[in-house]
User: Fold this.
Amino acid sequence: MMEEQEEQPDLSLRRRDNEGERFRLHMVTWNVATADPPDDLTSLLHLNSPKSPDLYVIGLQEVYSGPLRFISDTVFDDPWSQLLLSTLAPRKYVKVSSIRMQGLLLLFFSKLDHVPFIRDIQATYTRTGIFGYWGNKGGVSVRLSFYGHMLCFLNCHLAAHMKYATERVDEFEYIMDMQTFDCKKAPAIVDHRLVFWFGDLNFRIQDHGMHFVRSCINNQTYNLLWSKDQLTMMKKKEEMLQEFEEGPLDFQPTYKFDLNSDTYDSRLYRTWFGFNGKKRKPAWTDRILWRLRPKAPPPNEQDGVDGKTLRQLEEDEEYPLKIRQDLYTSNMEYSISDHKPVVGVFTLELRKMYGTPLVRLQAEGDWSADIDAMVLYSPLQPFPSSTWDWIGLYKVGFSSVSDYITYTWVKDDEVAFNEEIVQVYVSKEEIPVRGGECVLCYYSSTLQCIIGVSEPFKVHESKVATEEGLVHEKLNGLNKAIASEDLWN
Assistant:
């Protein structure tokens, strides 16, 4: 991966006060126990809420990864990704990044408005299962810059069973140490301004017996169980854990349920020797925590201050970042797994380090498949342009950067330019004959992200196609046939 370009804050955005803009973040963690997704994710994603999130982050564990399914998932999106894309894309959310390691899956979606301001995107994974050689346990992460603020999202599936609390902490610290990024500003997870740690962390409720735990759940006296929650206990003696915050566990434990029910584990388990094993005790295995980077210590007059600390002090003061958790709960509606999903809703308040995209672009004149078209773009700030930069034509409601109708190489198809405006040619053969509402996106190969999005514009239906009798039904069939040929060729 190419070394990141250093972001320069937009000094024109500086204000005398410390107030920032607010952004809503909707997070989900769910161990889906190899099940296919339900038909409807409305409740999980709060799609009927009057406040729509700016960002969605969905972390899944135990996504089915049998040999045949996993081979197909390397070619096509897995069923969970497909459903999330088809659900969120019509609401103008774009999948900015995703990463999968066997059963661990992490997806990051953003409203289209924010996409040009999400940069420095990288994703990585760390295996911890079977001495680090197997990916059934471990962590996957997506990190990025959101309006200049470095954020990191770490989805983990840690060691199971009651007696391995210490091993879970060791695995987490190993993941934190191992994951590094090609980024001068934040080369390690702890260097990020804000880190979210979530997933099936597998911490259990210790000491209390089954009867007491279930009695507390039935009476909703969850607070009586908190002191024996292993993660709460481990935080008292592990310094790294103490830097992470978590909302109160005011919801019933999310593990372990009988499938297709709200009944906690009631089955009898056969051991190797034919004896009945114990039922699993309920526990808060599924969690969402966060860590704001600790403030840099004030400079010592005698020792001075190094450059990194000074930059951090200036950033904390000039571009404050605050977080508030608005909701932390389980969703009991879904019963396809022995875990219930957990939802966390947050408000991020931050001062933008930049408020203009790197590129402004627009469609010139009327567009249709009857005539060659032109795109105009203007660099608004210096950025590392490349011969591999391209401009994509997308339908409004596109799902990801790869979901383009067509694209044109910026340098190859440049027809005119001056210092302020560049004109790029698009062949009419590449424009959809049926037309529709579209946008243009400029993709930077060096920065590996979209750095400019046009206003929506109408591509008109082809008059030639209409006159030749290519009605919509035939065009639909033709498009499907072409898509099929493209796929297999």
